[in-house]
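[User]
If only I could read C-alpha cells as easily as an amino acid sequence. I have put the entry right below:
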Amino acid sequence: MKKICLVTAGLLGALIVISLAVVLIQKNIPLTQKLALVRIEGPIMDSKDVVDEIDEYVRDNSIKGIVLRIDSPGGAVAPSQEIYSEVKKAAARKKVVVSMGSVAASGGYYIASAATRIFANPGTLTGSIGVIMEIPNISDLMKKIGVSAEVVKSGKNKDIGSAFRPMKEEDRQLLQNVLDNVHEQFIRAVAEGRHMKIEDLRPIADGRIFSGEQAVPLHLVDELGTLDDATKAAGKLAGLGGEPEVVSKKDKVSILDVLRGRFPKEFSDIIPAVKIKYQYAP
C-alpha cells in the first residue's frame, strides 16, 4: 500500500512538473504566431484599458503584430497622449497597423500617427489636428433666476474659466497660450510619428478634417483599405503571410464600471468644467 501511495505521488508530481514545463515553453516559445486586434472606439476619456491591452500583446511572444481599429473623434488630451506613447513603444518592437473606421480624427488621429502603417477607408473622416477648449457660461441664466455665486480665491486667476462669470480678455489670452502649447505638442507628435517635417505639417494642422482619400497625398494616411486589408498587411509585415490568425478581447461592461464612472463618460459633459480636448466636434 505504501509503495502504491509513493508511486501515485510520484506520478502526480511528474504531471505537475510536465504541466509547468509545457506552460513555460508555450509562453517563451509560442507554438502558434498571431496578430492581435485592439479596438479604440468612441470618445477617448481614459487610457488605462487600451494601454494595458497593448502592453500585454507586446509582452506576449506569440503575438507578432498589432492591428488598431480606430473609430473615434478623439477626446481628452492626456489619455490620447498616453495611448500614443504606448503605440509608439509597441511599434518599436512589433508591427502596428492602424485601420480607420468612420472617423479617426483629432485624438483618434494622434494615436494613429505613432503606428507603423495607417489604412483608411476613402470616406473616413480624419485629420482635425487641433485643440478645442469648451467653457460653458451660465452667468446670464443665473441673473435671470436670481442666483449668484460667491467666490473666495487665493489668486486672481484661480477661477479662470468659471461658468459663473463672463470671460475677461486676460483670461482668454492665458487660456489661448495653453491651447497653443498643447497644439504644438500635437503637431510635434504627428510629425515624429509620420516622419514629416513640422513646416510641411503645420499648414494642414489647423483643425481641418480630411476624407481618407484626401489624407493619402498629404501623407497623413499610407493607403486606402478596409480592416481586412489592414490585417493582411500587418500579417505580411510581421512575416505571418496574408491570412494570419487574429485574437482580440471582448469588451465587458459591469455595474462596477458604471459606478466607477467609466460608462458612459458622456454624462460628465453635463457638469460645467474647463476641458481641453483633442476632439473633432462638428
Q: What stands out?
A: Confidence is low (pLDDT under 50) at residues 22-27, 258-271. The radius of gyration is 25 Å.
